[in-house]
Amino acid sequence: MPMRVAIASMFAIGLAAGGAAHAHAATLRGATVIASGTVRLSDLFADLEPGQDRPLGPGPAPGASIQVGGRQLLAIADEYGVDWLDQSPSATATITRAGRVLDQDYFAGLVRQNLPDLGDGPVSIELRDFHPIIVAPDDKKPIVLSDIKWDQRSGWFSATAYRGQPTGDITRDSFLLTGVIHATRRLLVYAHALPAGSVLSASDAQMDDSYAGHITSKAFTNEADIDGMTLTRGVVAGAPILDQDLQRTVLMHKGDPAVITFTAPGVHLTATGRALEDGGAGQYVHILNLSSNMIVTGRVISASEIEVAAGSNPVPSDSNALRRLTSARGRSRADLSLR
User: Any coiled-coil ranges, and where (predicted)?
Assistant: First the structure.
């Protein structure tokens, strides 16, 4: 029942007037915050006589306010025998009911409580078309969920939410709660937007401990793995760093001269060579040893150095070997590398 209607009803049924005017003067409260759902006389007037306080009617909804105008205040003071200082028909009193906001975090936690199949692992619960609601601060169970449905494959869920303390308005007392649940993971994301062709360094990445987006290829978790890689497309801040968007930055180009090094316990050998294909840092490529005219496979150390691992088998640089090598360049780097 609205405040004005409730007060008018009290006048109509002739509630007991509090007696004649009291010698003790009360003062008007201009603004009052109440915790309960009932407005009392002391919410409008301070310094009442002992035993003079009494309930007047229902208060506003949690978080809402009502205003009581001067004529109503005069009528209430007269009805209950309140000797009110500075009485005026232009006076107003505002009564606000305290409220607690139930935000997305609250409802996400409630969904998790009601879906034990989610387990204890990290998840992200994203609500769709969500609007916060306000409830009484002392409401220990303000929302109850029912009819919960969850498609584990798509992550989509829905549930009906009911207020624990109904307001009487069916459009506010229940509503449909929907959203998507994603498993989260710890991975590197871009610290800022970058254009295609950028060469990455550690400063371009940051760790996201609870990334919940969709991953389409291998994601990185170690900054050292992306250092020196080149972007094949433009990216935005916060996007995951994926293998499909990176390529090795070419340090050594086909035809470049290079020093071939071989190191073993007690042995360190060097030779002059020429790269037979492009290669990025740490990548294995074929190189022609100009001294022995043999083709070896080594790891790119820098733009001018190839390191040959122990156990690498050189092959003669005859026409057949060179032809096989030429045809192999059309295949992936994995086919050309020693793993």
Answer: none
